[in-house]
TrEMBL record:
Designated name of the protein: Phosphatidate cytidylyltransferase
Pathway annotation: Phospholipid metabolism; CDP-diacylglycerol biosynthesis; CDP-diacylglycerol from sn-glycerol 3-phosphate: step 3/3; Lipid metabolism
Pfam families: CTP_transf_1 (PF01148)
Organism: Pedobacter miscanthi
Membrane topology: Multi-pass membrane protein
Keyword Membrane carried by entry: yes
Highest classification ranks of the organism: Bacteria, Pseudomonadati, Bacteroidota, Sphingobacteriia, Sphingobacteriales
Length: 269
């Protein structure tokens, strides 16, 4: 528990710093985070005997993130994102030269890495430029993380105190419905608090954001648990002492970030 607390403290400081220290720090930090998370995903999948194209996947993942981030800095046309396609689809050609009984499993999991890891981080990064396409604003990404952490903390505390009815025992035996609604309540409470500080959106928009984070953040946790159980693995990695790997810490973000971005974009624009 001491190790977990120390890791959580320093990791929280780093996370907050990455958001508050400006757009370039924000971009570089989440580029590195997305690449490391993708590397962790491919390493995890490799335990099952499948061999995704890790090197091509990581290069393509970094390029996808940089191209998406570059839209805000360099202001080029969205059509230039198509330049990622040749690199992404080179996995088919590379697989032709490998001797493997399940070539399309290797190809499929390479693509799954982009969809499951890289694209959600791109959407989270885009939250920083949602208020203005060309100017960074830390309000939405910071609010996202605070609501996500509030949901996790509330779910844990309410689950320990009142948890009786299992939420999804097959994939996560410790989660309960009481914890789920407790996390949602805590997240909405934080959202209303933030609405007094971040006044660019009304309180109901922040509350809606909190509800989506509570629901899809929990689903993200369950999906990652499903992945680890299918591979008979306890943690996705060992980068964070006492917490496991990056995927263990960002499982909620991976499903929630694209949904929250879509919600805010549709509501605000």
């Amino acid at each position: 528990m001491k190790t977990r607390a120390i890791t959580a403290f320093f990791f929280t400081i780093v996370m907050l710093g990455s958001i508050l220290l400006g757009s370039y720090t924000f971009t570089v930090f989440y580029l590195v985070l997305s690449v490391l998370s993708l590397f962790e995903f491919y390493k995890l999948i490799k335990n099952s005997g499948i061999r995704p194209h890790r090197n091509i996947g990581i290069m393509a993942g970094a390029l996808i993130f940089l191209m998406a981030a570059g839209l805000h800095y360099l202001k080029y046309d969205v059509k230039y994102l198509l330049l990622c396609i040749p690199l992404i689809f080179s996995v088919f050609i590379t697989e032709l030269y490998k001797k493997n009984k399940i070539p399309f499993a290797n190809i499929s999991y390479t693509f799954v890495g982009f969809v499951y890891v890289t694209i959600p981080f791109c959407f989270f990064h885009a939250l920083g430029f949602l208020h203005s396409w060309n100017e960074y604003n830390f309000h939405y990404p910071l609010a996202f993380l605070l609501m996500l952490w509030a949901n996790d903390t509330g779910a844990y505390l309410f689950g320990v105190k009142y948890g009786k009815r299992k939420l999804f025992e097959r994939h996560s035996p410790k989660k309960s419905w009481e914890g789920f609604f407790g996390g949602m309540f805590t997240s909405v409470l934080v959202a209303f608090g933030l609405s007094f500080w971040f006044t660019e959106s009304p309180a109901w928009v922040w509350a809606g954001m909190a509800l989506l984070i509570a629901n899809f953040g929990t689903l993200g946790d369950l999906v990652e648990s499903m992945l680890k159980r299918s591979l008979d693995t306890k943690d996705s990695g060992g980068l964070l002492p006492g917490h496991g790997g990056l995927l263990d810490r960002f499982d909620g973000l991976l499903l929630a970030a694209p949904v929250v971005y879509a919600y805010l974009y549709l509501i605000l624009y």
